[in-house]
């Protein structure tokens, strides 16, 4: 029997774990953008400037050409001519007076402003649709 005891075999068992993965769709996400349009009235002040031209006859003898000058909001531009006589003289023929007139008017202009917003919808695996988030700029 001694031989039988040495021939005894004990089977050893080892468990092994085998894992695997698979994708399961639990839902979907849809993102869309919407554009909202709002008409806004824009007010702005505009300034217009006009120039009134007046010619003033002078016909006076002068010794030198006068400079352009400004008097009481009027710009005066001398116009000179030479006249041939036994001697040469400067005659102030005329002055051009420029008078500025400023008009201010308010204007309103309709302007179309656009705002874009994103709507995110999640579709559940059961087919339900739920809006989860809305973002505006």
UniProtKB/TrEMBL annotation:
Pfam families: DUF2382. Residues 10-118 form the DUF2382 domain. It comes from the Bacteria. This is DUF2382 domain-containing protein.
